[in-house]
Design a protein that fits this description.
globular; 360 residues; nine-stranded mixed beta sheet; alpha/beta; single chain
Length: 360
Amino acid sequence: MPLDQTPVPAQPSADSGPDSGPDSGAGLTPEGPGGPGAASEDTGPEDNSPLSAGTSAESGEAWNVRQPGPWTHRDLAANGARFHIAELGSGPLVLLVHGWPEYWWAWRHQLTALAEAGYRAVALDLRGIGGSDRTPRGYDPGNLALDITGVIRSLGERRAHLVGHASGGTLAWVAAVMRPSVIQSLTVVSAAHPRDLRRALLTDRRQFAAFDHVLGFQRPWIPERRLVADDAELVGRYLTSWTGPNGLDEAALHAYRQAIQIPSTAHCSIEPYRWLLRSMARPDGIQFARRMKKPITAPTLHVQGAADPVLLSHTALGGGEYVAAPYRWRLLPGVGHFPHEEAPEEFTAELLDWIGRHKE
């Protein structure tokens, strides 16, 4: 059942530990009456559903996670939870997966461009974020990757071009390892291969320092409260400091600050980062790292902002070592952590060229 998605200070779950292993499906929200793949269309922002509420503390204007546009909003069931998507166009499927602290709207530029180019563009809200279910468990990378591949199946497609940014990019790497037959091509943005990231966090002081926000997320209760305090002012500071010269506009900053204030989002959205650090010395984390040695067979485009202060370029560099298929590395000068928003035209051109080369 969808939660009330009015942006208000989120209350963290009593279970602040993310220690859900690779098979942590227990306790997930049950599928709706339509079963796997069942979908329902949103009736628009003026209906009386919980999705249609939200007010900015600064402007007083109504805000809705299902922002209007040429796209269609739908809910569908996959991997034991209900997911919100925004969909536009027809043709080969391109599934777009956001990073933290964003949600589906991060891909607004690419949704329209992909649809105009003849693709079925779908932007997904990850588990625990935006319009998707907040479940008590299931935030380890294995389960989150199965969410993504499950959504592809629920959309009625056998394969998809998968595009992921930041934490969504990490999950794209994982999905390509776990379900290679489902991934037609892979585009990873501002995300190192999981093994490279693990190595950097263990050995590279610069990368470890760049992840200071992730270190702060390890405490119980306090991070959730800080993220939503003062109309999510801290999230706004993160977004501003993580961009290059072409920063995010005020509308984008406002949207992401509102989205983190939807109840339970602050807690659910940082659970994967808690798993990342806490699992490093545990058997499930070690097993996951070993599994990620498997070569990726999907053609892979790897995009990185040269001015990214969160995921350093030298950490991301080298992902091709794990790709047994065509691999292209693109470093964008003057671009920070959000290439798809800071340089949407340049990024979209790279994306369209890559998936156009790998349609078959």
